[in-house]
Design a protein that fits this description.
It comes from Nibrella saemangeumensis. By secondary structure, the chain is an alpha+beta fold. It has one domain (about 35-300). It is about 40% helix and about 15% strand. It contains 9 helices and 14 strands. The chain has helices at about 15, 65-85, 95-110, 115-125, 145-150, 155-175, 245-255, 265-285, 285-295, and strands at about 5-10, 25-30, 35, 50, 55, 60, 180-185, 200, 205-210, 220-225, 230-235, 240, 260-265, 300. The strands form 5 sheets. The protein has a 4-stranded antiparallel sheet, covered by helices on one side. A 4-stranded antiparallel sheet has the order 7-11-10-9. A hairpin with a 4-residue loop joins strand 2 (about 25-30) and strand 3. Helix 3 (about 95-110) runs antiparallel to helix 6 (about 155-175), helix 7 (about 245-255) packs across helix 8 and helix 8 packs across helix 9. The protein is globular and about 60 Å long.
Amino acid sequence: MAAISRKHHYLPEFYLKGFTGEDGKLAVFDIENNRLKTKRLTPSQIFFEYDRNTLEFDGVKDDFVEKMYSQLETIVGHAFKKIKEQKSFSYLDAQDMFRIILFAGSLYWRIPKTDNLIKSEFENSSPDELYFEIRNKITGEKAPEDFINIIKKNDAFIKSYRAIKPVLDYMHQFDVSKIEDWKVYYATINDKGERKELHLIGDNPIIFRNPSNTDIFHQEIIMPLSCGKTLYHTRGKDVKVVEPTARIDVDRILFLQSKKYVCGPDGSYLEKIAEHASLYKDISPQAAEFLRNRVFDVFYDNTN
């Protein structure tokens, strides 16, 4: 039997490459120990867990969930390649935007932050709400409720479901007519003609207007796609000119909501943002909420 993969990234390597320095490596700030790591790491060396997506059936291990993620990465990789190649503007056709949006949904349910959330949602929702059903392959009859309840507590089934959940949500909840509400913006050029690519990446990289709402397709979000590119879901609003200060605020929020690591191309910038973020954390929860609201001030209603 062929060996299965064990090193499973919850932030894909191709995604992390957009946040590396010229050496192809990342500066890493260790949040738990409150320090910048002395060694720069490659994308393959961070944001992974061994056997995170490994399943076991009757004593036999399988990594087909990891293969599912790999297939998705292949699909969205084309759009990220196009974004990387574009220097001064974003021109993505509808198919590319669909891929980026699907990737955002997948990433949210792939990170450790949502481990307990996916278990709770899975256990407390009906099969209809989860968009699946289990039937006897011979008779075609639906499985009894007690069997469903057992399955819903099975770790292998939960891991499988979390991999396909973004696709199911995308199919059942995403409004194709609202594609224009999703926008990719590039870092602004300063008065010296320089493009300051600042964005960082952390283990919880999607910023929600309302963190208690997990429906990524129906609320405003901000998500760094690379150091200089950002995905916005505006929900019908417009986006003001995004000044460097607004982008720095995004990095501060990323620090506040990450638990283990935050990375970027430049170590000194990482340390500065860590210091800024700690000030907001030390003041009060209201200070952090004020910062979140300020981050979304770049959205404005154009109907008035």
